Amino acid sequence: MQVQLTVNGKQVSVDVPPNTLLVQTIREHLHLTGTHVGCDTAQCGACTVILNGRAVKSCNVLAAQVAGAEITTIEGLAKEDGTLHPMQAAFKECHGLQCGFCTTGMVMSAVDLCNHHPKADETEIRELLEGNICRCTGYQNIVKAVVLGKTNMAATA
Ligand code: FES
Ligand code: FES
């Protein structure tokens, strides 16, 4: 079936079987491989994207269910000139990653968190990120990065 989406500001049309997951559509049909698949069962958060303004686990959604939606993936965060999004810059500055596998999902969830909970303190940030798992267990620096990223996002809003 044909599914129209707006991905990172561009309108796209993909021809996918009706049972195609959104994450498969993003990775295999649109070749945006920054969105990762860790578990495929809505546990780890590696596949997180922003769908119509909210973070979702794209392994838990069919592309056909979200026809017409606006989606932002990690590739859509930085500016065209390569300037990192404030949250990406904060992860870089705070060394908020080790192997990097969870990182794109963490960053997308962190952006969503800051958009919807701009006053979240460190404890709330830890709770709000509970859907994202880091197998390298580098949570201390991830949380530091989100705290800094929240400040950076507020400063550039
Ligand atoms: Fe989607 Fe793990 S791959 S939550
Ligand atoms: Fe390796 Fe999080 S940095 S899984």
TrEMBL record:
<dbReference type="InterPro" id="IPR036884">
    <property type="entry name" value="2Fe-2S-bd_dom_sf"/>
</dbReference>
<dbReference type="InterPro" id="IPR051452">
    <property type="entry name" value="Diverse_Oxidoreductases"/>
</dbReference>
<keyword id="KW-0560">Oxidoreductase</keyword>
<dbReference type="InterPro" id="IPR006058">
    <property type="entry name" value="2Fe2S_fd_BS"/>
</dbReference>
<keyword id="KW-0479">Metal-binding</keyword>
<keyword id="KW-0411">Iron-sulfur</keyword>
<dbReference type="InterPro" id="IPR012675">
    <property type="entry name" value="Beta-grasp_dom_sf"/>
</dbReference>
<dbReference type="Pfam" id="PF00111">
    <property type="entry name" value="Fer2"/>
</dbReference>
<dbReference type="GO" id="GO:0016491">
    <property type="term" value="F:oxidoreductase activity"/>
</dbReference>
<dbReference type="InterPro" id="IPR001041">
    <property type="entry name" value="2Fe-2S_ferredoxin-type"/>
</dbReference>
<dbReference type="InterPro" id="IPR036010">
    <property type="entry name" value="2Fe-2S_ferredoxin-like_sf"/>
</dbReference>
<keyword id="KW-0001">2Fe-2S</keyword>
<dbReference type="GO" id="GO:0051537">
    <property type="term" value="F:2 iron, 2 sulfur cluster binding"/>
</dbReference>
<dbReference type="Pfam" id="PF01799">
    <property type="entry name" value="Fer2_2"/>
</dbReference>
<feature type="domain" description="2Fe-2S ferredoxin-type">
    <location>
        <begin position="1"/>
        <end position="77"/>
    </location>
</feature>
<protein>
    <submittedName>
        <fullName>Carbon-monoxide dehydrogenase small subunit</fullName>
    </submittedName>
</protein>
<dbReference type="InterPro" id="IPR002888">
    <property type="entry name" value="2Fe-2S-bd"/>
</dbReference>
<keyword id="KW-0408">Iron</keyword>
<dbReference type="GO" id="GO:0046872">
    <property type="term" value="F:metal ion binding"/>
</dbReference>
